[in-house]
Amino acid sequence: MTLTRRRILLGTGGLAAGLAGCLDDRGQGGAETWATASFFTLSEFTRAVTGDLHTVENAVPSGEHGHEWEPPIDMLPRVVESDVFVYIGTEGFQPWVDDALDQIETYYADDVSLVDAAKGIELLEYDGDGHGHDHDHGHTHDHDHGHTHDHDHGDAEPSLEVRNIELIDRSAGQPVVDAHADHWHGEPLVIPTEGTLSIGAAAETDDGPVEIGPPGYALEARIVDGPDGLEIDAHGDHLHVSGDEAGDGAVIVQLVDDDAVVWEAPPLEVVVGDGDEEAGSDDGHGHGDDHEHEDDGHGHSHGEYDAKFFSDPILAQEGVRNIRDDLIAIDPDNAAAYEENAAAYVEELEALHEEFASALEDREHDHVVLAGHDSFQYLAERYGLEIHTPVGLSPDDTPSGRDVAATVDFVEEHGLEYVLWDYFDGPDVAEQIAAEADTVTDTIMVSPAESVVEEWVEAGHGDFIGQLREITLPAFETALGAR
Questions:
Q1: For the segment 203-236, what is each residue's pLDDT rounded down to a tens digit?
Q2: What is the CATH topology of the domain spanning 35-123+311-343?
Q3: What is the pTM of this model?
Q4: Which of 173, 413, 451, 469 is most buried per CB count within 10 Å?
Q5: How large is the angle between the packed helices 401-414 and 428-436, nearest 10 degrees?
C-alpha cells in the first residue's frame, strides 16, 4: 500500500507527540501553501524569490518572536502538507524546528524538500550572556579553537582573594561544582566524550560579587593533567571544556585581569566520558549526541552559534541566494524567474547595506546598549560597533540585578544618552537602565525584523527591509550620535 502524506499524518500522532502533542487533520496551511518558512524573515526572503509563482506561509503568527515561539498542535501537518520547508539549521534556534526536521527526514523525506537558508554561512560563535561585542576596534578575537588555553601570564603573584566560586553548567543554568578555601565540593567535573560542556562562573570576595567577563575579570583555566584530547577554550565569561577520549585529569580555574592571573582555584578533578548522557551538552545546548541530518545535505549546526545572520544586509543576501539555489533545484521549470526575483531583492539588500554604512560612518562613538536579547551581533560585526546587552541570545532570558547594574556601569562609563530596546522584548529593562543611569536621556525602539505587527504594515514598513530602514537604522543613528 502506498502511504500518502495525509495517511502518514493520521498514523504517526504518537511519533510526533514531542512536537505537537497530537495531530489533527485540519491542515490549515492547505495544499495551496507551496512553501512554509519557519519564521517571518525567511518568509520574506522566500516570497522575494518566488514572487507570484507560489504561496509562502510564515509559520509564526504576526507579533510573535520567531526564536522561542511554541507551535500549535497542527503545525507539523501544515509543514508537511507544503512542498518546501525553509528554516535556519542552527540547532536550538527554533526548538520546534529541530523536532520537525527529525519527523520530516524520518517520515516525509519524499514529500517535503528542505531548504536551510544559513547553509554555508559562517556563523558567529556567541561569546557571552549579556556582554558587549567589540568588533573591529583593534582587539584580536582569536580563541584558538581546538587548543588548550595554557597562557603564559607572567610570574605575577595572584592578588585577588576569592572567598568562593561556583562553576555553572550554562545549558542547564545549574551550579555543578563549587570551591571554598582550598577544596572543591561536588567534583569531579564530568565532560561528555566527544562533547563539550559550557561552563560559566560566579565568584565572591569579602567585598561582594566578582564581575566575570568584559569589562571585568576573564575566566580561564589551565590543564594540569588529563587524557589526550582534553581541551579548554576560554571565552571571557565562560569556558568550553571538551574531551575526545575517556579518562581522568585535573584543571586549575583562573581569573585574569589585563593578561595577568590574579587568582587560581585549587586543582579540580575532571572526568571525561563517565555519564556523558547527563553531564553536559554539545556547546551548551543540551544535545549530547553530535548528530547531523544528512538527508540532502540539510545539517544542523551544533553549539552556541548566533543564527541571526540576517541583521547584516550583506549576509542576508547570502541567505536569499541559498533559498534561490535550492528552489531552482526543487523547481527547475521556474529557474529563470527565481534568478530574476532574487537578483532584484539582493539589489535592495545591497542598497540597504549602503544606507547603513553611509549613515553610521560619521558617528560620535561606537557603543550601543540594547536592553534585550542580542539580535544585532552580525550588524555590529559589519559596521564596527560594540553592542552591550544585559541578556543573551534568547528572548526568554531575564537579566539579573547584577546584569542590569553592569549595563548601567557601561552606559555611564561611555556617557551614553540612549538605550535601545527590542519591540518584541518590551521597554521595561530599557526604562530601568535609563532610570538608574545618570547619562541617559531617552530610550528608543528597534526591530530585529524577525516578526511584524499590523501597525508597521499600515505605516508602510512592515516588510523586512522596511523595518531595518525605517525603525532600526534611525535608532542606531541617534544612539551613536550619527544624526
A1: 888 788 899 988 889 999 999 888 888 899 999 9
A2: Rossmann fold (3.40.50)
A3: 0.62
A4: 451
A5: 60
